[in-house]
Amino acid sequence: MFRPIQTIIDTTALQHNLAVVRQKVGHARTIAVIKADAYGHGLLHSARALSAANAFAVLELEAAVKLRDAGFQQPIILLEGFFSSHELDAINQYRLSTVIHHHEQLSMLSAYRGSNKLAIFLKINTGMNRLGFKPKPGNSALHALKQQEFIGEITLMTHFACADDAAEQQLVIQQLNEFSVLRAECGIHLPCSLANSAAILRYPQTHADWVRPGLLLYGVSPLPEKTGIEMGLRPAMTLTSQIIAIQKLSPGDRLGYGAQFTASQAMRIGIVAAGYADGYPRHAPTGTPVLVNGQRTRIVGRISMDMLSIDLQGIDHANIGSTVTLWGRGLPVEQVATAAQTISYELLAAISPRVPRCATP
Ligand SMILES: *Cc1c(COP(=O)(O)O)cnc(C)c1O
User: Which positions carry N6-(pyridoxal phosphate)lysine (predicted)?
Assistant: First the structure.
């Protein structure tokens, strides 16, 4: 028997969301970002549902090889590039594309002779100060790449620190300006890629040649003021489990680890098979929303490793075996993220491998 917790992945929602993104970005080509096991949705069935994308982006070589072995022909981009020169043989063999963000990677490349042309995304640090080359005049990284005959197409790339935050528009514009200066200095036109989900929505002037949506594809909003549903997207993941025990508390009874919750009146509590080892956030406080048979109620007490407790007051039909929706259909993950003081990205990506992914249809 399986534990009753599972994620149900609506693959038609993924298709729909990709179509919405493509419609927003006009002629820009789309790199579907499917890192972190497609934001917890499962790599291969998500890639299949998103196969209308012009390219895919992942982090690990292993994920890229899985996609090739499954028959995907699109460019597959390694978002952090390679970490040792041992990876270059596989990158060559599987015709992968790679981000280059550091001089170490350039020197590994210059010592390598591949049989295929290697497509490069040259990452420019325009102010986020995480990865990338500073946009110096006569960019030496670009110069070094152009010297190498087995380098194929070079795309200039950058990443925004605050595209999601309307109050930080100035920083986005500043990063965009840095990027434009470098681009102008290149002399020839190189294709460019700047926009993540938030920039796709807020800054159409950043769409350029390639956009890199992640979160939007999963039907979730990167912006604080709106949910995915309110933007016409369809959340692709529903995380559900079941009630596996019922407790009846008397006034004054306390509940769970730390005895953090005290019943102020007689109440029924449902014990649900879902805990932080499944990826449900341990710091979700009393009051975090959940659905029981579609009806909204709340978490009470601390989240344990494998279980959590919910308030069944006023939900008399709830019993052992009742379906509990932790987020997804009927309960946007954005609302759970807000209640738990985190972001939807973290909730989706943290779903543990022990939770089965069930793709529909
Ligand atoms: C994860 C990632 C993205 C996608 O970000 P979203 O906010 O999910 O759209 C785009 N570009 C890079 C470099 C990333 O690492």
Answer: 35
Do 248 and 266 contact (CB within 8 A), yes or no? Answer: yes
Model pTM above 0.90: yes
- Is the CB of residue 222 below 6 angstroms from any atom belonging to ligand 1? yes
Give the whole-angstrom CA distance, residue 289 versus residue 66.
Answer: 37
SS3 of residue 242 by DSSP: strand
Domain ranges across the chain: 11-222, 237-359
Q: Cα dihedral sign for 225, 229, 233, 235?
A: positive
CATH architecture label of 237-359: Beta Barrel (2.40)
Ligand 1 site-directed mutation target among 60, 203, 212, 237, most atoms within 8 Å of CB: 212
151-157 and 237-249: which strand pairing? Answer: unpaired
Fold of 11-222: TIM Barrel (3.20.20)
pLDDT in tens, the chain (361 residues): 689 999 999 999 999 999 999 999 999 999 999 999 999 999 999 999 999 999 999 999 999 999 999 999 999 999 999 999 999 999 999 999 999 999 999 999 988 988 899 999 999 999 999 999 988 766 778 888 888 888 999 999 999 999 999 999 999 999 999 999 888 888 778 999 999 999 999 999 999 999 999 999 999 999 999 999 999 999 999 999 999 999 999 999 999 999 899 999 999 999 999 999 999 999 999 999 999 999 999 999 999 999 999 999 999 999 999 999 999 999 999 999 999 999 999 999 999 999 999 998 8
CA atoms within 13 A on the CB side of 126: 25
CB 340 within 8 A of CB 347: yes
**226 flagged as catalytic:** no
